UniProtKB/TrEMBL annotation, chains A, B, C, D:
The keyword Iron does not apply. This is NAD+ kinase. It comes from Serendipita vermifera MAFF 305830. Gene3D superfamilies: Probable inorganic polyphosphate/atp-NAD kinase, domain 1, Probable inorganic polyphosphate/atp-NAD kinase, domain 2. It holds the Pfam family NAD_kinase. InterPro entries: ATP-NAD_kinase_N, ATP-NAD_kinase_PpnK-typ_C, NAD/diacylglycerol_kinase_sf, NADK. One of its GO terms (biological process) is NAD+ metabolic process. GO terms for molecular function: ATP binding; NAD+ kinase activity. The keyword ATP-binding applies. Keywords: ATP-binding, Kinase, NAD, NADP, Nucleotide-binding, Transferase. It comes from the Eukaryota.
Length: 363, 363, 363, 363
């Protein structure tokens, strides 16, 4: 767990690569990268040989195919040839144009956390053979995926982040300065953690008292995070293009605490009630941040700095054929949404009871 | 129940009263009425003497205070003095600038249904002493409420509607013409109704197959409707400013069919599977519309014609004092949201278990 | 739908075949058939050629292998050689020692309904290649299954039924006589059915007012029925050996109506509230029974006549091998429970999210 | 948190006061105390002056009214006159005939834990002015409540306990001896506690693998505990007379993990999967017991030693009048169940949405 002060040292990095907005549709605007990246940051899962080897392959490919592109890695040992170490403190001096992650969903959450107080560069995410919610590309397709990026064909899904500030009982901000809001992709969680007792948290929306929660804790989630912890607590599945914040209770001592979907423009305050017997541990995307005592609070709102995630394009993924076929039947064309595929294949959404054939059972 | 053809005769009425957009915030833009209304349509609950008497009072007050305003009533008997009958077919010849409803939530749903294929004039809704989700004003405050409107002080909450078209197996539209989409404030419901058997419905989002639902039915709801039938089926509570469509199953034969919050820009198709043993009755805001047979489908998307609902202003409602007080504590000012009050007082949202005092119990 | 009076004509049939109780454990007592059956009633799914052909095979096998056993069929056309027609009214004159069903879960519900007012003979259920919750035997194994019965090796699971009586506003029983309680295996359902309005039902437990339900309806279910309609409405999964009654609401207008598991000894009354705008359609195991008007009520309690279901024995089912293996690991022996297998394979209970391999996805 | 070894030192105390079984009904048998108590153990909430003063009053009353009865207190300071200190280790030498608790639900859980490995004497529980689920008597009524006990009029509700043993990877029992099962009234909880990662737990029923849970944890609860933590996690409400064990997941990473109601005769094993990244903290009735590492497991079954709770009698509680009235209406007599009253008044069970009168709102 981080100490309180250590949380607030970070200065926002700069992303030099502008994103071109292709349409004016408020949510779900289609965007592409305006120009090819000059610098790439690799972020990978630790202690995994398959991932380390894949990194070497990708780095070698970039060096050969796109000479002149600077390569960085946020770890500092076992660097592949031509890749230099990089840390959050290098953000201004060594701006990043593209992040490439190799690993699981957690690797992308970690990449986002490297840019937790400012703009995030576009993220290209490779899975290592297993699907994930935030993982559009299979590692086998990396040459094509890179080609699309360098030729300006990639589309971007901006995944909302939420920005969180921590406050003392007197309202003053922990960490001192106003521009240190910590941003997360999935959620901020307040949890009783090691306390045997429930905690009491008051939730306010735009300054108005919403409710007093007596529970194991509360989750304030982005639409992206709706398929993470919030889902386990009974929350709905929210499409990443719906500009909103999701409030879901964790094991509330109440029969009537339903999930709330609040406007993306809301400012939400979660305050440990002074009568709470337990404090609340704060987790940011699953990473412990600090412990709030009674009277202390956090304030959360949509961040101005979403994560620009590069979307899978149709050609790179076989099962899109079927989607195409379906669309034709319904008399529609184009588009398609990885999200629909993912909630079905990853979450086994609405797996209807089937009177399966005994044959299957016997296999 | 309406026959199929009778549904599609309606021609959209015209609202002559423009609404001024006060800000550019995509959701929850603050709007006001640009000029005082020249014509008012009364919509009231039927067969209720208290409501009938209130209508007479309001009509008399308008005639005296705002002479020259034309008054209409969508019923044709027992009209108060100076009030003329009006029906949907009069919409073009006798445009309406303001609707005043007297009754419950159902009365507003009915007012919306009078303008189900086009623009709806702003709606001022009076409750008859009981609160309701769509009922900001208590009838006792009607002189002030009218004054605010005629002096241009009222603010408007645009409540999203969804537009629905009905299709035959070959895709052709029932009712014939493309501009007859039926619009609803709460939801479109497909339900097995009188059939003892479950039905099977395929749901598509933007032409992509989302899921096959084996259930009592499906609800496609607006945020406004999230506190109506969808809530009873386990759906989340969605703030009316979140531009989205909510898909909630009714008693699905599945352990894993969670509610989905889809982008407001989605186009959703619900098609009775050809293998479905039961047809599906379609209800629009609780009103039966038609029965879909296997192979037939509906298509739903956000309507371009929301319902402009006149919001309660702070001065007219006592309990706002408390909200004011809370905001001051949290160091915020202004605004306030009836929605927060309503989910607490009307839905008993998150009524925490209390070890109540025996004293209370004994009363 | 049945008329009210037609419901109550039935006279209870007699089962001549005593069941031997092997242990005194109140729930889950192990029982076997005391002597070989002298008469068998076939109940099969209608309009299905595969089922009709299977029936001919089974009937021929019984005639050859167990000569002297009387064979009946509750349908009266297309009877296989040596099989006579039988109807509920023959129950006294032509007692049944064993029921054999061929079809799905619905076929067993139908078999139970043939004996809806009295004792049910033991039931041997064959599935036609698809699994079902109430279907232990695959049709391919019928010679062995019959052999086990005639040699007294079969074990019996007594599935609780609930007995229901229908009452007028003045409390008098519809149908006239006290011994006409209608018994069901799954559940009694009260539903608004064709009414657009919610109904209001008062629930009483042992004469004490429990709650007033404003909803689409209520389900009063046996543990067997807990995996049927009640599950779709959010109810828990109750093991068939737990002597209890399950009350689950259907789409209640309440955030706080959780399922209740009541003692099997309870007497439950469901009464349409006099203020209810809608009546309630009563379904018994999915079969429409009657419509209750405001003031009318039903009374439900555990039936003294459960359904003796013949259990699958270990030798007849391959996948039991795995179960055996697991038990060995946990240091236990014997027994095993089809129920555990069924909730996993049929309901996909707790299908944990898996980051599936792309390989699988690609197939 | 207790160390592992300290858990297993306890030797079961003896209760000298036999309970007479009044009926043979398997669940909900009515029982009474056979003879007046010779010794009473007081258990009270700590650090509460009101409770301390009430204890002095009750102790004085018993000394005067029932001279010769030995009085004990499980705390050893501030003992009222005539009350001696007592601890679990005195259980054999100084047997207890009656426990009197003064405090909340937690005080009864604590009283049960004093007798966690053997028979528990009957418990008479006084609330200090607030209701509780396990608290039938208001402190104001203590003279009558005691009179009923000494004159043999009290009825007893036997609340099931579950007995739990802790096992190492090799199956050997922690603490060494087979008869040290720890018994709880509410539940055994396995929780990830301070770990940021989910744990993986395999659940077995009677040696058969039931499911692999990837979650924050699992709850194995008695019917009594169904209104405690399990309820917060979405579990059903189970009447205390239903002989069963309730398995409820805590925030499972699954859309399809519904609560299971298992037979009271089941033997359930919960084993930390060897692949689990996190261990599991075990809580017994909210009290931390130990931490299980991957491969370690607990085994749970119904305890032979339930908690005999003395029930509120009709005369002592005013609101019973209403219950009486209702019963008369339904044409039934007698009985009545505090449980029905409690789920309504304490849990606000099925608080139907009411369009409340503005008048109320204004108060
Ligand atoms: N009971 C639960 O469900 C809990 C869930 N979490 C979630 O874990 C996240 C942290 O993830 P890791 O660092 O990978 O921890 P982890 O290694 O413990 O894995 C958590 C799981 O969540 C998945 N996941 C992460 N983000 C997701 C998303 N947006 N949609 C769908 N699945 C997603 C991951 O693929 C992984 O399977 C937290 O942000 C929180 O949402 C954390 C604690 C408890
Ligand atoms: N099981 C259920 O919960 C069912 C609910 N309904 C709902 O009833 C609506 C029709 O309403 P009425 O014509 O008044 O029928 P109704 O007179 O049967 O009343 C339905 C109830 O819903 C309330 N309601 C309506 N719209 C609401 C909203 N947006 N938020 C919160 N509460 C709301 C009304 O105040 C009333 O209490 C439908 O649009 C549907 O949403 C319809 C059938 C079943
Ligand atoms: N929304 C829902 O889930 C609804 C469920 N039902 C259920 O259908 C039952 C009648 O069944 P059928 O005549 O076959 O009608 P059906 O042909 O409409 O099938 C209902 C489905 O329920 C399954 N089923 C039946 N009893 C079951 C049990 N005890 N456990 C698990 N699955 C079970 C059947 O295999 C079938 O897949 C009713 O007793 C009721 O429980 C009835 C209406 C709606
Ligand atoms: N998120 C949650 O709901 C959590 C609940 N708990 C529960 O707290 C219990 C321990 O209770 P305390 O020592 O008093 O801790 P506590 O002082 O933290 O209180 C827990 C609350 O649960 C209530 N309670 C206890 N047993 C109950 C029952 N059988 N039915 C209904 N309400 C009940 C108590 O009155 C109190 O309001 C545990 O056995 C566990 O069931 C423990 C942790 C989290």
């Amino acid at each position: 767990m981080l100490g309180r002060t250590s949380l607030f040292k970070y200065r926002p990095p700069v992303c030099s690569l502008p994103i071109r907005r292709l349409s004016n549709h408020p949510s779900g605007a289609v965007k592409t990268l305006k120009k090819p990246p000059n610098s790439i940051l690799f972020v990978k899962k630790r202690n995994d040989d398959v991932v380390a080897s894949a990194l070497r392959d990708v780095a070698a490919h970039v060096r050969e195919t796109y000479p002149g592109v600077q390569l960085f890695h946020e770890q500092d040992s076992n660097l592949p040839i031509g890749v230099e170490p990089w840390s959050s403190s290098d953000a201004r001096s060594r701006p990043i144009d593209l992040i490439i992650t190799l690993g699981g969903d957690g690797t992308i959450l970690h990449a986002s956390s490297l840019f937790k107080t400012g703009v995030v560069p576009p993220v290209l995410s490779f899975s290592m053979g297993t699907l994930g919610f935030l993982l559009p590309f299979n590692i086998d397709t990396f040459p094509q995926a890179l080609d699309e990026i360098f030729t300006g064909k990639s589309e971007i899904l901006e995944r909302m982040r939420i920005a969180c500030t921590f406050h003392r009982q007197d309202g003053s901000e922990m960490g001192g300065s106003a521009n240190t809001a910590w941003q997360v992709m999935n959620e901020v969680t307040l949890h009783r953690g090691r306390s045997p007792h429930l905690n009491i948290i008051d939730a306010y929306v735009d300054g108005q008292h919403l409710t007093e929660a007596v529970s194991d804790g509360l989750i304030l989630s982005t639409p992206t995070g709706s398929t993470a912890y919030s889902l386990s607590c009974g929350g709905p599945i929210v499409h990443p293009s719906v500009h909103s914040l999701l409030l879901t209770p964790i094991c509330p001592r109440s029969l009537s605490f339903r999930s709330l979907v609040l406007p993306g423009s809301s400012r939400i305050t979660l305050k440990i009630n002074r009568g709470s017997r337990a404090p609340a541990e704060v987790s940011m995307d699953g990473q412990e941040a600090c412990i709030l005592q009674p009277g202390e609070f956090i304030t959360v709102e949509a961040s101005p700095h979403p994560v620009p995630c590069i979307k899978r394009s149709a050609d790179l993924f076989t099962s899109r054929r079927d989607a195409e076929k379906e669309r034709t039947i319904m008399g529609e064309k184009g588009g398609g949404d990885d999200w629909v595929r993912d909630i079905n294949s990853l979450l086994q959404f609405n797996a209807t009871f089937k009177n399966k054939h005994l044959a299957t059972e016997r296999l």
